[in-house]
Amino acid sequence: MPTPFRYTEPLPAKSATGTVAEVYAQIALDFGIAEPVTFAVLSCAPELLAPTWALMRESLIAGTGSRTGKELVALGVSLANKCPFCVDAHTVLLHATGDHALAERLARGERPQNEEHARLLAWGRHTRVPGAALEPYPFPREHAPAYLGTALTFHFINRIASALLTENLLPAGAQRFRAVRSLAGRTLARTVRRPARPGTSLALLEHVDPGEAPAWAGGTPVGLAYAALLRAAMRGAGLLDTDDHHIVEQTLQDWDGTHPPLTLAGFPDRRERPAARLALLAALAPYRITDEDVAAWRRPEHTDHCLVHLIAYGAFVAVDRIESSLSTQITRQPM
Q1: pLDDT at residue 328, as a whole number
Q2: Most exposed among 38, 85, 139, 241, judged by the fewest C-beta atoms under 10 Å?
Q3: Is the pTM above the cut of 0.85?
């Protein structure tokens, strides 16, 4: 049976122990899927898996605001990042919320009929552009931590999925059929519509100082989860040398949200700087990562754990660029 994993071989859920087993148990309870591949692909690095789950849970699942609204934001982010796996996943999850007609309009590439829904989708897409004016929000300001957290969550997860998974959400691309999408959504409906208590996932995290949480999170569990993922993802920086760091940081500093040209002009050559190339592709165009890119970097000492950390580092450099410009906007607001 074809595997959804491109470059890693995660252990099956039945072999999970410790933190990984605890995360899987929460995912099954609060997400309704026992072992979603977007999290299984991180299972070789529990220190990444736990905060990724925590950020998604505390924003999309347990955060304030409409689940349909947050799914639309996540879908907009996924469209902006060209992640077909995540686009299909959020279409199924819109079915799970009961918004079947909306899910199918979006599956056909059509604009939502409801203007509020259209604004949420467009807002999610717009978050890819660092420094873009995101206000006025298309949701109540008191719901901002959950919506902003949802957007940042999927800027990270999109990149992990595009880099390390195939495009097929279901075997043989079955999610392309309307009946399959609807049925898959209905099987998740009870879990998706059940209220979740905020903060439950924080017990899975290493200690995080509340002072590290970003201001936009407003003291909610979303901020602690974001801080934990930031710290974990940045550990992957140790897989790059000083020159690699400079190349990655300079490129991201100048990034305006656009997708790279087909020629990948300006990207490091995989024969000369394979680590910098992989990190930058993970940040800006993870769907362009090839077998040759991974093979050029990978050495006998580079385990799945190393690869996941390098991809996570590149992915989060882009997330951090988006989040930093967001934080600057909030700081500049008049008191």
Answers
A1: 61
A2: 241
A3: yes
